[in-house]
Amino acid sequence: MTTKHERASALLAVSTVIFALRKDDETGGEPQVWLPLVRRIREPFQGRWALPGGPLRVGEDLAYAAGRTLNETTGLAPSYLEQLYAFGDASRSSGAERVVSIVYWALVRGEEAERAVVGENVAWFPADHLPELAFDHNLIVEYALWRLRTKMEYSRIAHAFLGERFTLAQLREVHEAVLGRALDPANFRRTIEASGAVVATDEYLTGTPHRPPRLYRYDDAVDLADAGPLPLQQHFFKGES
């Protein structure tokens, strides 16, 4: 019989949602947000796709564990890795033992994403069109995608997909891919320039058939600090913005 003084126990695990902008190899089209998933080879949920992750080892830091499990399953080692949320509802584990997952999320550029180890048990999926995943991983991806779209409005997160120098057209393409809708080029330029978040450089993109576009960078003097993740309940009560 459980009493109110009895201590709760749970296994700790880490999982990582890693986003990249990719085109569909079959249909082409505009870049979309994709993520790699790993097929489970044992119960529970054997055969279903899941986020890269695994148990936390004794003496292992959380961020290190997230990076280790991600590298072991996909071969990726992203430079941007941020703790997203802790998922620990009592009903999330199918076994007798409760599992609390500390979830990280990461962003990689297209060329880095191409180096991922894919095969029968590792594959890329469009973030907005996922199969039914193991555990509560659909919920986790939904929350991570919402966080990504929210952060696009006030942080420098886009440069994780672009690099230090980029054209305004490239920046707009990233916003369009993440938000999932087309943006008016003129309005986007005015909004970005008025924000003061980016600074024009003296460099230009080479190798273009027309007039080379100017390259920009983010202004490090502007405070675009991350306000931190909202509680999961607040996200669902407010809905997506």
Automatic annotation (TrEMBL):
InterPro entries, per the entry: NUDIX_hydrolase-like_dom_sf, NUDIX_hydrolase_dom, WH-like_DNA-bd_sf, WH_DNA-bd_sf, WHD_NrtR
PROSITE patterns, per database record: NUDIX
Residue ranges of every copy of the Nudix hydrolase domain listed in the record: 11-149
Residues making up the signal peptide according to the UniProt record: none
Pfam families: NUDIX, WHD_NrtR
Protein name from the UniProt record: NUDIX domain-containing protein
